[in-house]
Amino acid sequence: MNGREPLDAPAAAATAPGPPAGAPREVVISLYAKREQIYPRARIGKTLGVFARWRWALVWITQLVFYGTPWLRWHGQQAVLLDVVARRFSFFDLVLWPQDVVYLTGILIVSALSLFLATTVGGRLWCGYACPQTVYTEIFLWIERQFEGDRSARIARDRQPMSPQKFARKAGKHAVWIGVGLWTGFTFVGYFSPIRELGAAAGQLALGPWESFWILFYGFATYGNAGWLREQVCTYMCPYARFQSAMFDRDTLIVTYDSARGEPRGAGNRNQARAEGGLGDCIDCGFCVQVCPTGIDIRDGLQYQCIGCAACIDACNHVMGKAGLPLGLVRYATTNALAAKLPPAQVWRRVLRARVLVYTAILGAICVGLAVSLSLRVPLKVDVIRDRGMLAREVEDGQVENIYRLQIMNTSTAPQTYTLQAAGVPGLVVASESVVDVAPTSTRTIVARLRASAAQTPAGSNRITLAVTAQGNPAIQVNEKTVFFGLRP
To answer: Does residue 389 sit in the same domain as residue 329?
Structure first.
């Protein structure tokens, strides 16, 4: 046989006996779920709710900081510049070099612990209010509403066939999305390449290949994530959604639905009290689902797709107010608070539990340690390299000379003049230039010649110290150990 089924296979299958009664039925589960388009409502009512106003306030704050910081000038230079080519990270008066990787590590640790602490106390507050995915999705949704209207208008338009008006609205929306994405990519690259020079090069269409690549990469990443993927980034791509439960406990503040008060749901009769009709306070309006940016129903309990944006709280409170019912059917609460019906005062007292105190203590200790270390940091670095081509040589007046290469790094934002001194061998002096000028946040390499009396210098290697001191500020001083070779008889 050729491996194919016979032509009468369908007929044979139709007449074949089925599984015996009561046997378990075979269920096919698809590994791919087709995405259902989500059309989140902007608001319920004429005004934004309390939490929506907080979200938009953080949208404005984060974007003013992000888009504005690269344009700030400090001592004639870009205030914040992560110059990878020059291996120099500038943050106003603080300049970090590759040797300062411990500070960058400390900053990353502080950021991670701050996220853990915020999650332990208030759930996914970062996701709901300040995460770039949330922020840019809010911006892109606002742009979409300007072109296509609110939820109902967008649903109706997407069901219609393509028309010139529909094409024009969607084309305009995508053009603005791409513009915002490219400007975001340009700004991001401006943190790593001086943004004023970057802007001038972009205006002349003279960008380098790498700068062009990263602007396009981050620009279209913003366009794709905020314009197309949206909730899929939070649901499937973000690892934080998967491990957040490890930081939750029963006293973590999360967005919750009070099922004991809300169930059973139903519209009810206006002329009859809800309790008399056997109904809870939830009127089953569905607005909490319509405003959710990830399309979940908070009434089904805590779900990993919930980003804690509290849009459902604003919607439910608006409906409860219109219906003359108490607010807070959907609210920030804890699992213990719902189970034991704790008053707000006890809920907040439970916030200061051992887990939170440990996170706070560790975070505070690291922040204090970083602050003290940075305050005591000397804004000067010196590297000493011996000239390997010649260990020592005898020069005029019976002296022995060693040659060194000094790399002096001025990590401050002001020009400095440094004085070189040497000690460790009797009569040791600096025979080359002993005063060196170094520009702000710059490195200068010089050749230093040290001389001492050949008769007074012991043969072989001798431990010496090279001191580099800033003129007018003796506190800025670095002492480097090296060796000085004496001549053998």
So the answer is: no
Does residue 57 sit within a domain? no
Per the structure, the complete domain to which residue 278 belongs is given by 249-342
**CA distance between the termini of the chain:** 99
Tell me how far apart the alpha carbons of residues 335 and 253 are, in angstroms, rounded to a whole number.
8
The candidate with the shortest Cα–Cα distance to 37, out of 161, 156, 136, is: 156
Residue pair 260/338 in contact (Cβ under 8 Å)? The answer is yes
Would you say residue 413 lies in a domain?
A: yes
Co-location of 337 and 395 in the same domain: no
Establish if 400 belongs to a structural domain: yes
Query: CA 147 → CA 60, 144, 247, 305, 398, distances in Å?
Result: 21, 5, 40, 28, 87
Q: Which residues of the chain have pLDDT under 50?
A: 1-16
pLDDT of 87: 84
Please report the pLDDT score of residue 24 as a whole number: 64
Number of domains in the chain: 2
Residue 433 lies in a domain: yes
- Kindly report the pTM of this predicted structure: 0.84
What pLDDT does 13 receive? Answer: 42
Distance CA 368, CA 364 (A): 6
Q: Which is it for the CA torsion 114, 116, 117, 121, positive or negative?
A: positive
Supply angle C-alpha 205, 209, 213, rounded to 5: 100
The pLDDT of residue 1 is 38
What whole-number distance in Å separates Cα of residue 220 and Cα of residue 229?
12
448-458 pLDDT per residue, tens: 999 999 999 99
